[in-house]
Amino acid sequence: MLPATRPSLATLASVRDTLHRAQPRLAAQVRADRIMATFAEDLKEADWYTPQWAEEVFKQIELNFESACERWRNLCKAALAQQKTQNAIIMDMARSADERRQAERLRREAESQYKLLTETQNVLQSDFYSYRYFASEGFLPGYNFPRLPLSAYIPGRRAQQR
After folding, report:
1. Whether residue 51 is found in the same domain as residue 110
2. Quick check: is 84 in a domain?
3. How far is CA 110 from CA 32, 115, 117, 125, 128, in A?
4. Three-state SS annotation for 24-47
5. Which domain holds residue 107?
6. 68/56 Cα distance (integer angstroms)
7. What is the pLDDT of residue 8?
8. Which residue among 55, 73, 96, 110 is least crowded, i.e. fewest CB within 10 A of its CB?
9. 129 and 75, same domain (yes or no)
10. 24-28, 104-108, 155-159: which has the minimum mean pLDDT?
11. 122: left (phi > 0), else alpha (psi -120 to 50), else beta?
12. Element holding 108 (H helix, E strand)
């Protein structure tokens, strides 16, 4: 069952504070500059690169993190909205038994989707793994994460018994 009240999907204050701290950001930028210096000649040929590129990326880290979280938030909101809509159908006694059964199935799917997105137990084996998610959103590099098959939520169909 999904939460009775709409959960806050806002970034935790502790995460925002960490992203806002200047010292780790500066240390990361210095490290990035050192790495990029090893292939500086190649960067000169890249049309997207400017000497201020890394500095701009680090200035935008908070905004980029929030932007990367937006798809996850939208998926959570959609699951919550579907659960609420289907629950209203289930509780409507004017609906047919078939409509209520269909709504029960759709509500279970919404609850399953929400659980996949918010599960905090055994995250490494979960279908939703935050490091992989942030890599797919372009916030983290994806080259250092294990390759796993592409997964999507596809609700199963039950064969009708005759």
Report:
1. no
2. yes
3. 41, 9, 11, 20, 15
4. HHHHHHHHHHHHHHCCHHHHHHCC
5. 70-140
6. 17
7. 86
8. 96
9. yes
10. 155-159
11. left
12. helix 97-118
Burial (CB count within 10 angstroms: exposed 0-12, middle 13-18, buried 19+), residue 94: exposed
CA distances from 127 to 40, 50, 132, 146 (A): 39, 38, 10, 13
Give the tens place of pLDDT for each residue, 86-132.
999 999 999 999 999 999 999 999 999 998 888 877 655 565 678 77
Q: What does each C-alpha distance from 32 to 7, 15, 42, 74, 136 come to in angstroms?
A: 37, 22, 15, 32, 21
Q: How far apart are CA 143 and CA 28, in angstroms?
A: 18
Report residue 80 as tokens. 């919550």
Domain check: are 116 and 76 in the same one?
yes
**Cβ-contact 65, 19 below 8 angstroms:** yes
pTM tops 0.85, yes or no: no
Q: How many structural domains is the chain composed of?
A: 2
Structural domain contains residue 148: no
User: 153 in a domain, yes or no?
Assistant: no
How much is the pLDDT for 10?
A: 92
pLDDT over 70 at 148, yes or no: no
